[in-house]
Design a protein that fits this description.
Layout lengths: L7 H7 L23 E10 L3 E5 L3 H16 L3 E5 L8 E5 L11 E6 L2 E6 L2 H14 L9 E9 L5 E7 L7 H13 L4 E5 L1 E2 L2 E2 L8 H4 L20 H13 L3 E8 L4 H6 L17 H17 L4 E5 L6 H4 L2 H9 L5 H18 L3 E5 L12 E4 L4 H8 L4 E3 L27 H5 L10 H4 L2 E8 L7 H8 L2 H10 L7 H17 L15 E3 L3 E4 L9 E5 L10 E2 L4 E4 L5 E9 L9 E7 L8
Parallel strand pairs: 2-3, 2-4, 4-6, 8-9, 8-17, 9-12, 12-13, 13-14, 14-15, 15-16, 16-17, 18-24
Antiparallel strand pairs: 1-7, 5-6, 5-7, 10-11, 19-22, 20-21, 20-23, 23-24
Helix pairs in contact: 2-3, 4-6
The structure holds acetamide.
Amino acid sequence: MKRFVVRGLFALVAVIGLGVAPPLRAVAAIAVIPQPAYMRVGNGSYALPHEVTIAASNAAERDVAGQLSDFFRKRGLAATIVPKNAAHATVRLSVIAGDKALGTEGYHLRVARDGIGITANTGAGIFYGFQTLRQLFPAPPATANALPYIVITDRPAYRWRGVMLDVSRHFFPVSFVEQYIDIASTYKLNTFHWHLTDDQGWRIQIKTYPRLTTVGSCGDYDHKLGSGPCRYYTQRQIREVVAYAKKRYVTVIPEIEMPGHSRAATTAYPELACKPIRSDVYCPSETTFAFLQNVLAEVMRLFPSTDIHTGGDEVPKRPWNASPFARSVMKQHHLRNAHELQGWFDRRIERYLNAHGRTMIGWDEILAGGVSKHAVVMSWRGTSGGIVAATRSNDVVMTPDGPLYFDAYQGDRAWEPRAINNHTTLRDVYDYDPAVDALTADQSRHIIGAQANLWTEFIPTQQRAEYRLLPRLLALAEDVWTPAADKDWKSFVTRASSQYARFEAAGITFWIPGPNGLEDTIVDGDSVHVAFTSAVPGAAMYYTTDGSYPTVRSARYAGAFSLAVQRGEERRVRVITVLRSGRVSTPADATFSRRVAPLAKP
Ligand code: ACM
């Protein structure tokens, strides 16, 4: 059996301080994402017995123990859950109360001579200890069931660690939604924002209003409403997803867009739009409020989340300005313009949610109308809305459309499948920090976390969704979990490699990053040594040096090679990566150009 060997010296170096990430070499075999807040690697390793026992007593412990048993069985081990007072157990799960250092989501994980222990104040903490534990096992194709001796004490930097999926522009089946939640929770994200309604399709069954699904769900971004298949989630399916997420300590936040992005609803029920312009905006009428309150009543019965997302973004004001009825509402309530009318609309919905014990969350446009201090603001037009919200004491989730919109290209758009017109690299996501320097400590406390959004105009399939989500989600996980001072790009890149091996083994269509070390280079002499390594372990690389598109018939990379670069010339090395599964990356490029000689002094 292959075992980890962790050298004593490295272990010693790693002891250096709480909150300081151990040096990379010390954890070469340990590749946890997100990087734990504190980790000390011991000297030796623990080989699991073939018959694993998991000690768990209360409901939360037993629930994670069940998931842990499934994990062990997949690794070829037998697993039994035993009571906590059992004399021997391979793994001990203990919810204890009152370890202040761990907070509500932190955990303590220890692997030693006598086995594995996870303690936490909550079931969430135990679950996160389990997520770390599974990453301590070697990545496929290695199958060893041995773990390094290690002590980890860990807790998140932020409490809102989210990812959104737009199921309106394209619909995704429950099986994929659950996989999405699975991936998110593996990397300790705790919030799934489900964008359930938009112009292109209404995806949630509402029993009071059947036309929302018999009409409003029959289209998507590629099929005008009425011309596409009708795709939506039944209430039973929604309950299934919420329960699935709960087991993984993920809160599901439903989004019901209003007053804009509502064409699916106004097509199903035309009386919800103002005359004379039939539009994608609800009319601010009593008919509309009765409708929305009835919809929200059903939504609240399905979703236990405190926060209910009501959209609020990009509301065109022309339909209201053109409507005698909407103008009469403005006059009656002394609203100077359509922007103030949206504020009035939002506040009315907020009062309804508050009366039912819920909190409104919306896109940063909801600030303009002056929602209450209790509303949560999702800052998407950059971070400015979030900064304003925090200064007004509203809680903020940062989801800036630059680094955290995962519908953007990751690679060179010349080769990538069509994406929205932006480019956001893995590095861009990694370098994002939700903290804002300009805020005071009190204001900063209102930044409760960050979230990535996956809009799906150009994501027609689940494979494409995986391709846009991953590996960027790994970088997001570290942005919201790991203390900012401990983030380290080089270490992240190394640790991400193990995750790629796991994705590949699970058949997940992640975007394949270009080789590590392939970088634009200024060359001093007549030639340069070109060396790089595959981002994905065990993958093959093929390259060209003449600017052509590489194929598996191009030169196979077999170690550093020499590249001649003439004076005034720029050479391009273009590489494709081919996974063991046969999946091929788009090309990654680097240029090698000759340094221009300095002008001779006159
Ligand atoms: C948004 O991207 N319109 C929230």
